[in-house]
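Class prep. Protein, please:
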Amino acid sequence: MKRTLVKLISDAPFFSFGICSTLQRHYSFAIYTHCNNYREATNEIIEGDGYASFDNVVVIYHCRSPEHVTQLKRLLTHNKTFPLAVFFSSPHYEMLELAAKRRSISVFDETAGEEELIRGIKEACAGNAYFSDSLGESVVRSLRANGKGPFTSRELDIISLVATGMTLSAVAALLGVSPHTVRNHLANIYEKLGAGNRTSAVVKALEMGIIQGPRSRE
């Protein structure tokens, strides 16, 4: 049986207790460590000197504030490919873009249930990327205005996300569809708006009140 270290980084005690209790039902053989000092924990993970005796290291990161975002960016841009599970209290578009470029990652919002949590962590441990459906819904809810305009629900999702500056691959990963599907939806959006490119489509959708831009990227 593999020796697994689960490194939980969170400054929310109730959240930490819930995550550990859930994981221990599925990974009873793992060793669990918890740290509420995000900078210290991030430095320890990046240096990684104390992890040589473990076959697998899983990092669970609870992102709740701008300070947490700074340390998360370091983990997402570091060249190590340890499995990483990230929980967002609210969507952060730059971090979602970085996550979409990484392998061995699972991304959730705080509403993720036990079954989804375990599925996502297993995907990350297998070297795959997993994005929670509920995360995609929370992103779209935070951006979408009223449903004016001749768009389907999926088209509204996509134009809302594109308006944040996210790449097509990041939008596809977040919504759980292929980049080809996103491009097809965008082609329909362009036709309906009379737009020739993404920038023009976003500008027209904003002007028409179909979507609203994010108030803040933090």
